[in-house]
Structures are given as C-alpha cells and as structure tokens.
Amino acid sequence: MVLSALLGIFISFYTPSAVPLIQSIVAKEHLINANTTIDMLYELCAILGMGLSRFILSYAGIKGTFLIGGIFFIIAGLFNFIMKMPKNQRSQSKNQKNWWGNYIVSLRYFKKNPTFFMPCISQIIIMTFLMTIPVIFVPYIQEILNAGRRTFTMFEALYSAGVFIGALLSLLFCKVLSVRKTLVFLLAVMAIDLIILSVNTHTHCFPVYFMIGFGLSSWVLSISLLQLSRNPEYQGIV
C-alpha cells in the first residue's frame, strides 16, 4: 500500500508540471504537435515496456523489476533536473505565490473567463476515464472474460497502441477539421466502444480495446485546447 501511494504521488506530479513546462518552451502554434509527439513517445515506450516486462520478470523477479523501474524514474528525474529552462520561466517560479494564493487567483480567472469552464470540464471527464479505464481492465478481464495475465498484457498493449495511433492521426484530423471537431470525434469513438465493452463477454472483441485507446488520445487535444485558450501568465496556476 505504501509503494502504491508513493507511485501515485510521484505520477500525480507529472501532468501539473509537464503542461506548463511544455507551454513555456514551445511556441503557441506548435503546442498540439509538441503534446501529441510527447504522448506518442510515452505510449510507444509503454508498449515496449509491456513487451519486455515478461522477460524482465522471468530474469529479475518482481522486486528486481520494481528496482529497474525505480532506476528509470531516477534517470528521468536527472534529465529534468539538467534541462535548461527559459530565463523568464525561472524568474516566474521564484515569484510564485503560495498554494492558497494560486487557488484564489485561479478562481478569479474562472470568474472573469466563464468560457474557460467547458474545456476544463472536458479535460476533467477525459482524465477521469484515462485514470479509471486501465484500472478496471484487471477485474474486467478476470471476472467477465475469465482470462489470465497473457490476455491482460495483450489488451493493455492494444490500449497503448490505440493511444499512440490516435495521437498520430489526430494531427491530421486537426488540420482537416479543427481541434474541437477532432476532440468531439474522438470522444464519440470512445463512447461507442465503451458501450460495446459493457455488453461484451468474449475475448475476440479485442479491437474494441484498441479503439478505446484511440478515443482516449483526445486527452492530448483537451490539454492543447486549454493551453491555447488560457492566458500564458496563468500557466501552472489555472
């Protein structure tokens, strides 16, 4: 339980820190490309990690696998530590208010910009699905599909592959349509596949897991939409 709590705490630091960091070092017109590229790399490495996990577990064991994962966390932290930050971003970080002051500032920003609520609500819903769907995979596969670890690994890989392909194609969709229309399309795809999943009891319905990941790639667009509609002065606060 302690290990799970610590992992949850460390992972919860990622998005609130990464989003303002990306916005501070990437030009506004390149935000969507930057966010989707980072997400694709993340999911690609997730697929590779799941593919190698069986071999690592067989040779290193469970504790050794956790140790290897911890080492990669440390390496990632070192890379972030040596990353060069823009001068204006460093000066802003020194002059930041405390958490309560930031909270008050964010509430005032929402009050002055009511149109900002819809992108925020959209992102909250997408992030809720993004956090819960991988968690319910385990009991769903065990209790509904009556399958084992091998099926779970395959479905998890399909899910990550769907997010990867979705992020890749969303760049094309945004150029042909728009960010908002692409976001609606991806959410519709995810909704349809979740309905199919709710009545499915067979393992041969594995393409649905790929399409759920495809739809969940919308979280990158929701973050980009927030970044584009938010005043840069409030990055990391709102």
Order of helices and strands: HHHHHHHHHH
Note poorly predicted spans: none
| Spatial shape | globular
Cα radius of gyration in angstroms: 19 Å
Strand pairing plus helix content: what structural class?
A: mainly alpha
User: In percent, how much strand structure appears in the residues?
Assistant: under 5%
Quote the average pLDDT. Answer: 79
Number of strands: 0
Distance between the termini: 31 Å
Describe the main β-sheet briefly.
none
| DSSP summary: helix tally | 10
Subcellular location: Cell membrane
Organism: Candidatus Bartonella washoeensis Sb944nv
Membrane topology: Multi-pass membrane protein
Protein name: Major facilitator superfamily (MFS) profile domain-containing protein
Sequence-ordered SSE layout with sheet pairings:
Elements: H1 2-12, H2 14-25, H3 31-82, H4 87-94, H5 99-112, H6 117-144, H7 149-176, H8 179-199, H9 207-216, H10 218-229
Protein name: Major facilitator superfamily (MFS) profile domain-containing protein
GO molecular function, one term: transmembrane transporter activity
Main location: membrane
Describe the structure.
It is found in: Cell membrane. It holds the Pfam family MFS_1. InterPro entries: MFS (IPR011701), MFS_trans_sf (IPR036259). Its main location: membrane. The chain crosses the membrane at residues 6-28, 40-60, 66-83, 116-137, 157-176, 183-200, 206-226. The protein is mainly alpha-helical and 238 residues long. It has a domain at 30-51 and 113-234. The chain contains ten helices and no strands. It has helices at residues 2-12, 14-25, 31-82, 87-94, 99-112, 117-144, 149-176, 179-199, 207-216, 218-229. α6 (117-144) packs antiparallel against α10 (218-229) and α8 (179-199) runs antiparallel to α10 (218-229). The longest helix has 52 residues, at 31-82.
